[in-house]
Amino acid sequence: MLDQEAHELFSKMAQELDQSIRELDCFEEQLVSSVDGERLDELDEFWNGSITAIGEQEDFRRSMCYREKKLLWVWARLRKLRGLRFDVTQDFMKMNVTVNEDGGA
Fold first, then answer.
1. What's the CA gap between 88 and 82, in Å, rounded?
2. Does residue 104 lie within any of the structural domains?
3. In angstroms, rounded to a whole number, what is the distance separating the alpha carbons of residues 11 and 13?
4. Contact of 8 with 89, CB cutoff 8 Å
5. How many structural domains are present in the chain?
6. Is there a domain that residue 66 lies in?
7. Residue 51 lies in a domain
8. Contact 68, 43 (CB under 8 A)
9. b/e string for 71-101 if b means 16 or more Cβ within 10 A?
10. pLDDT tens-digit profile of 11-44?
11. Is residue 105 part of a domain?
12. What does the pLDDT read at residue 31?
């Protein structure tokens, strides 16, 4: 089976990522509740790339307040952390399978 040290490392990484994600989820909720619903839809469109014209993107960026910029930062950070969390899980599973195939466990 996967050696104890590697198991503990993956477990600690996963726990730290989970904690960071939970904290950002709470912060996201606070920011979302402070933004008007229609404006939130516009931010979502901007985030998802629906605003394609360069001029419109620049105008939209200039029109954003601090909270809106912070919300986009939180969304970017959450995307990155969730991707890392997925990678940690995948790597752990691959290591575990490799060890098992090599005769461990």
1. 10
2. no
3. 5
4. no
5. 1
6. yes
7. yes
8. yes
9. bbebbeebeebeebbeebeeebeeebeeeee
10. 899 999 999 999 999 999 999 999 999 999 999 9
11. no
12. 97
pLDDT at 99 over 80: no
The beta-strand segments (E) located in the chain are none
- Residues of the domain holding 64: 4-99
Q: What is the distance, to the nearest Å, from the Cα of residue 7 to the centroid of all Cα atoms in its chain?
A: 23
Q: How far is CA 57 from CA 3, 49, 62, 89, in A?
A: 50, 9, 9, 36
Separation CA 98–CA 86 (nearest Å)? 18
Distance CA 86, CA 92 (A): 10
For tokens 């040290």, the residue is 5
C-alpha 93/C-alpha 79 separation (Å) is: 21
3-state secondary structure of 105: coil
Q: Taking 70 as the threshold, does the pLDDT of residue 74 lie above it?
A: yes
